[in-house]
């Protein structure tokens, strides 16, 4: 007979909150994807910023979807996750979309920095001229790296199953699950590499933009007219600083998740999960209000 769900009141509350966050984030990212796809059909072309936002919206939508399925099974039907290859596929796909989300976000920060900052360095000028041609290759490279991470994550998740495929009794199941948790430490370090790489890209983008803004402000002190370049700098700085703050909290959550990985059901673990599910939707909402086209479309449809 099929297994009956065994969920406590705490588990039901957790599932309800995570479900609300997930579907809100999915709606926000689906809105970005739909608006940009409609614009793509009408104009037959997308600029570099819209290409990055489109891929980012798709990655986050898929990440929230697969993550919600994984969390739902872990709370309602936890034993199903230890059936080969459900766990391996869930971990692999989740890792792929998670790292795709991180690195495409880093590409967006780098794009803002190169497009808006003003430096006389030859390499910087060269990148500013060729950035529109470079963006598709950056996005392709991000997806290839995310795919490699997903394959490695599948291999890491598959090892404990190979070692414990005979542990079918109830007495051995708890031991097998503890061993599987220990095998997930390499995947956390793998995720840490993705977070660290994208985090450094965001930090460098913020520093370069801040320095460029400071230089531009010094030049404009004698001019009372409002500078469009100054407005662009400030708007980009607001976006990147929001990236930086949320990436910092996200990185802290990853470290805490490594500490509390074996403490299932704890309140700290739940708070970590709550933020991790809120990050893709909240950050995409900031991107919507930072993009005139998306913001105008949202204001038109909300009434």
UniProtKB/TrEMBL annotation:
Q: Identify the keywords attached in UniProt to this record, alphabetized.
A: G-protein coupled receptor, Membrane, Receptor, Sensory transduction, Taste, Transducer, Transmembrane, Transmembrane helix
Query: Which parts pass through the membrane?
Result: 12-41, 53-73, 93-114, 135-154, 188-211, 240-262, 268-289
Q: Which Gene3D superfamilies match?
A: Rhodopsin 7-helix transmembrane proteins
Q: Name one Pfam family in it.
A: TAS2R
**What subcellular locations does the record give?**
Membrane
The answer to whether UniProt assigns keyword Cell cycle to this entry is: no
- Name a single GO cellular component: membrane
Question: What is its membrane topology?
Answer: Multi-pass membrane protein
An example Gene Ontology molecular-function term:
bitter taste receptor activity
Membership in a protein family: Belongs to the G-protein coupled receptor T2R family.
Name the record gives this protein: Taste receptor type 2
Q: Name the gene behind this protein.
A: Tas2r9
